[in-house]
Amino acid sequence: MPEKIYCYVDETGQDTQGDLFIVSVVITGRERDSLIERCAEIEQRTRKGRIKWIKTDYTRRVEYIRQILAEPAFRGKLNFASYRNTRDYLPRTVLTIARAITALALDDYKASVLIDGLPRAQEKWVGIELRHLRIKIKKVRGVLKEENDALVRLADALCGFVRAALEGQAEMRKLFERAKKSGTLKEL
């Protein structure tokens, strides 16, 4: 029986007109429920709550991402890719998802992909493109209310965190470098 893989995806950077585009992928398997639980606990403990990264107070952002990165359960689950000088947003998102799944190197799997803000009209296209890249897809769904899913909120926070680090915010940059070095955060 194929293993179930879940990919929670978000992106940021369209506002830069292509200067910097970032895609984050939180990828999980059968431990999905325990990761959702850990996320919810960390959101509550840091008082970040279910609020989007951009609307969260800076000190709560830092504490939230610190605790996420310190949690052993998230090691190898947090992925991102950054792109410069491109407006090919959706194709880059598809490529990043494919790289995240391929990095797991499983033979027998079926992936469910949940993308924050993806319009229903684009779900089929994303699925077809992923299949062209030889990714075994069960379903592709857009998530319109990220507040309802802890791992979509984590993907949102991961995007915001990576962007802050790449844009030079000192504290975020230190956490970013440490997370990459430890293997908690993987660049695709």
**Biggest β-sheet: strands ordered side by side in the sheet:** 5-4-1-2-3-6
Total tally of structural domains: 1
SSE series: EEHHEHEHEHHE
Low-confidence stretches: none
The N- to C-terminal Cα distance equals 28 Å
**Biggest β-sheet: count, sense, barrel?**
6 strands, mixed
- CATH superfamily placement: Ribonuclease H-like superfamily/Ribonuclease H
Q: What's the arrangement of secondary structure elements?
A:
Layout (H helix, E strand, L loop, with lengths): L2 E10 L7 E9 L3 H15 L11 H13 L7 E7 L4 H16 L4 E8 L3 H13 L4 E7 L6 H17 L3 H13 L2 E3 L1
Parallel strand pairs: 1-4, 3-6, 4-5
Antiparallel strand pairs: 1-2, 2-3
Write a short abstract of this structure:
The chain has helices at residues 32-46, 58-70, 89-104, 120-132, 150-166, 170-182; strands at 3-12, 20-28, 78-84, 109-116, 137-143, 185-187.
